[in-house]
Specification:
single chain, 2,3-Dihydroxybiphenyl 1,2-Dioxygenase, domain 1, Biphenyl 2,3-dioxygenase, alpha+beta, 288 residues, 18 strands, Glyas_Bleomycin-R_OHBP_Dase, Glyas_Fos-R_dOase_dom, globular, ten-stranded mixed β-sheet, VOC_core, eight-stranded mixed β-sheet
C-alpha cells in the first residue's frame, strides 16, 4: 500500500476566473497570482496549493497526493505498475507547472487524475494574504479536502483504501445522499465520496474546503459574502461528523468553496467510525 501523507494541491478547470480571483483573494484571504488563462492561489509557504484553468466547463483537473520521499515515489510507481495500473511519468513542464521535484500520474475512479508527487517548492517570499486573516490550517494536514460524486461509491472507496493509505473516518446518509469520508492524516477527511445525488453526475467535483485558524476569519468572510451579495450553497452551520463551523460559497463555475474553522482531528489509535443521518448539527441550510 502506498503511504499518502496529504492532499498537497488541487487543479480545477473553471469557466470564469475574474469572480473566482475576487472570492479567493478578497473574501477567503488567499494570495492569488493570475495570467490570462490560469490563476494560482497560495495559502502558506508553498508556491501554490491551488491552480485554476480557464476552460469550457468545470471539472477537477487533478488532485496532488504527497508521498514522503523520492524513494517512496519510485516505490509507488513500481507497485502501481505491478498491480496493472497505467502510470505516466510527469514531463519537465508538468513538474515545473506544479512546482514539485518529481511526479507521476494515473487515472482513478471516474477518470479522476491522481498525481503522486514529492518535493513541493517552498517560496522564499513570505505568504501575503489577500486580506487580514489569522492564516490557513495546512502544514502536515495538507490543503483541505475535496468532495467528488462517484458512479460507484463503494468501488471508489476500495480503490483509495486498497491502493493508498486512506482510512475510513465515517459516513453520512441523509435524504438521497450517501457519503463516505476518508482521511490520510489527522485531518478528519481529505477525500469524501458521494453517490450522484442532488443533480450531480458521476465524477463531478462538488467542493473544496479551506480551513482557517480563527472563527472570526469565518465570521468576517460571512459578513463580506452577504455585503457583496456573493451566492452561497449553504449558510453558516456546524457539521455533525467533523464538527467544522463553515459556510459554502457558490462559484460561477458551479463548484463550491467550503470556508471553515475548528474541524476535529482523527487519532487512529482510538477513532470510532460512526454513521450520521444529517450533515449539520445546526445551520447549513440550503441558500435560496
Amino acid at each position: 500500500m502506498i503511504n499518502v501523507t496529504q492532499l498537497g494541491y488541487a487543479g480545477v478547470n473553471v469557466v470564469e476566473l475574474d469572480a473566482l480571483e475576487h472570492v479567493l483573494g478578497k473574501v477567503c484571504g488567499a494570495e492569488v497570482r493570475r495570467d490570462d488563462n490560469r490563476l494560482y492561489a497560495r495559502v502558506d509557504e508553498r508556491h501554490h496549493r491551488m491552480a485554476f484553468y480557464a476552460a469550457d466547463r468545470m471539472s477537477l483537473a487533478y488532485m496532488g497526493l504527497e508521498v514522503e520521499s523520492l524513494d517512496a515515489l519510485r516505490a509507488a510507481e513500481d507497485e502501481l505498475r505491478r498491480k496493472g495500473l497505467e502510470v505516466t511519468r510527469a514531463t519537465a513542464a508538468e513538474r515545473e507547472e506544479r512546482a514539485v521535484l518529481d511526479m507521476i500520474h494515473l487515472k482513478g475512479p471516474d477518470d479522476i487524475r491522481i498525481e503522486l508527487y514529492f518535493g513541493a517548492l517552498v517560496e522564499k517570499q513570505p505568504f501575503k494574504p489577500g486580506r487580514a486573516i489569522s492564516g490557513f490550517v495546512t502544514g502536515d494536514l495538507g490543503l483541505g479536502h475535496v468532495v467528488l460524486a462517484s458512479s460507484d461509491r463503494e468501488a471508489a472507496t476500495r480503490f483509495y483504501t486498497e491502493h493508498f493509505s486512506f482510512r475510513l473516518s465515517d459516513y453520512i446518509f441523509w435524504d438521497e445522499a450517501e457519503a463516505t469520508f476518508l482521511h490520510c492524516n489527522p485531518r478528519h477527511h481529505t477525500l469524501a465520496l458521494m453517490n450522484p445525488c442532488f443533480g450531480m453526475v458521476p465524477g463531478q467535483f462538488n467542493h473544496l474546503m479551506l480551513q482557517v485558524g480563527s472563527l472570526d476569519d469565518v465570521g468576517r468572510a460571512y459578513d463580506m459574502v452577504h455585503q457583496m451579495k456573493i451566492p452561497m450553497v449553504m449558510t453558516l452551520g456546524r457539521h455533525t461528523n467533523d464538527q467544522m463551523t463553515s459556510f459554502y460559497i457558490r462559484t460561477e463555475s458551479g463548484f463550491a468553496i467550503e470556508y471553515g474553522y475548528g474541524g476535529v482531528e482523527v487519532d487512529d489509535r482510538d477513532w470510532d467510525v460512526k454513521v450520521f443521518n444529517a450533515p449539520g448539527l445546526w445551520g447549513h441550510t440550503l441558500a435560496a
